[in-house]
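Thread amino acids onto this structure.
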């Protein structure tokens, strides 16, 4: 997962007790996804044109959280021809954080993977994003590797993978040099 600075300015949700509805993303959601990306994941947010191209290839597996017509979260899955998926983006609006929406989006994404006979799901997460790391660990993602400059200088990431099907192939080659750049191992793993 990418990590940004947060924000959430301009989003006013008056009925905080109603739960957002999870649904499949449609092309009309891309502007709202791009806005949420910019607020929650700056400076590493995907620009609109990248989201559009990713949507054209992978959008059938994208999930959004809709609260009264306002997009307040999303999970973006990319599934390759080898039946391995990447969670290429996930964010929840600042006003909806801490209510289990991230967990709901992740569970829905994993359900989509099970239905689609996906072998494994990979994610990257900033080592300081302890909330996301806890969520992924609780959801069965295991630590596979570390790259101190995944998104450039000063942008380290952990690689975590969750096995979905009983396929016996290891989802990520543990000898892959992309993940041997550092000797960083998270505590307790």
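Threaded sequence (189 positions):
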């Amino acid at each position: 997962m990418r990590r940004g600075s947060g924000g959430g300015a301009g989003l006013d949700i008056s009925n905080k007790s109603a739960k957002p509805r999870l649904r499949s993303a449609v092309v009309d959601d891309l502007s709202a996804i791009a806005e949420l990306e910019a607020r929650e994941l700056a400076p590493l947010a995907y620009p609109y044109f990248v989201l559009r191209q990713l949507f054209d290839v992978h959008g059938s597996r994208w999930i959004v959280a809709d609260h009264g017509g306002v997009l307040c979260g999303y999970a973006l899955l990319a599934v390759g021809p080898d039946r391995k998926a990447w969670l290429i983006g996930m964010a929840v609006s600042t006003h909806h954080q801490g209510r289990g929406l991230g967990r709901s989006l992740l569970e829905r994404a994993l359900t989509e993977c099970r239905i689609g006979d996906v072998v494994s799901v990979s994610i990257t997460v900033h080592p300081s994003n302890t909330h996301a790391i806890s969520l992924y660990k609780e959801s069965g993602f295991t630590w596979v590797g570390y790259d101190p400059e995944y998104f450039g200088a000063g942008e380290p990431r952990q690689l975590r993978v969750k096995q979905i099907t009983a396929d016996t192939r290891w989802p990520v080659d543990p000898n892959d040099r992309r993940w041997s750049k550092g000797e960083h191992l998270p505590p307790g793993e």
